[in-house]
Amino acid sequence: MSVPRLSRLLRPTRSPIDAAVDELMSRLAGVTGTASEAELVIAAVEVCGAPIEVEEVAQPQGRYGMVARIAQGHVITLDPHLPGDLRLHTLLHEIGHVLLGHTENAGAGAPDRLTALVTGQPVTNEVNCAVPEFRQWAQRENDAEQFASTVARRLRRGLTGRHLSRLDEAFG
Q1: Can you give the pLDDT at residue 107?
Q2: Which of 48, 139, 137 lies closest to 95, judged by CA?
Q3: Residue 70: which H helix or E strand, with range?
Q4: Can you tell me the distance from the alpha carbon of 38 to that of 144, in angstroms, rounded to the nearest whole number?
Q5: Model pTM?
Q6: How confident is the model over 72-88, as pLDDT tens digits?
Q7: How many C-alpha atoms does 63 have within 13 Å on its Cβ side?
Q8: Are 37 and 78 in contact (CB under 8 A)?
Q9: Neighbour order of strands in the sheet with 52-56
Q10: Is 65 helix (H, G, I), strand (E, B) or coil?
């Protein structure tokens, strides 16, 4: 039986969430003060390389927003009645879905039924009705929440550099 190398044990593990947060925050490094919605969206576009539009659309009760993959990129819809912090968190949550690749399967071929309905595309027999299984869906929601919470915490503390952010998260 071989003994694992010390360097392998000490190597930091970075999740896809960590990588996405670090990448977004590095794009915001030049922003002074609190980042605006527009600055967050521009940074997310730079990271994902595809356009992201933000639209205000009244949401059903209990839903604050959603993201849909379209041919040209992504559309994030936010409820226009959300108060400041909740609106920011919802925007970051939906950006998290984009940067974590949760919308990529939806862009292949025909749009899924929900995307077609929300974006006004015709719902035909070609609409992809595939829905991720519950565990996968729940994990995606959890990952997007973790992304949004981490970015919001870093923005509140003014920590855009990866090393300072990591130290702050580790030691509070």
Answers
A1: 43
A2: 48
A3: strand 65-70
A4: 19
A5: 0.74
A6: 899 999 999 999 899 99
A7: 12
A8: no
A9: 52-56, 73-78, 65-70
A10: strand
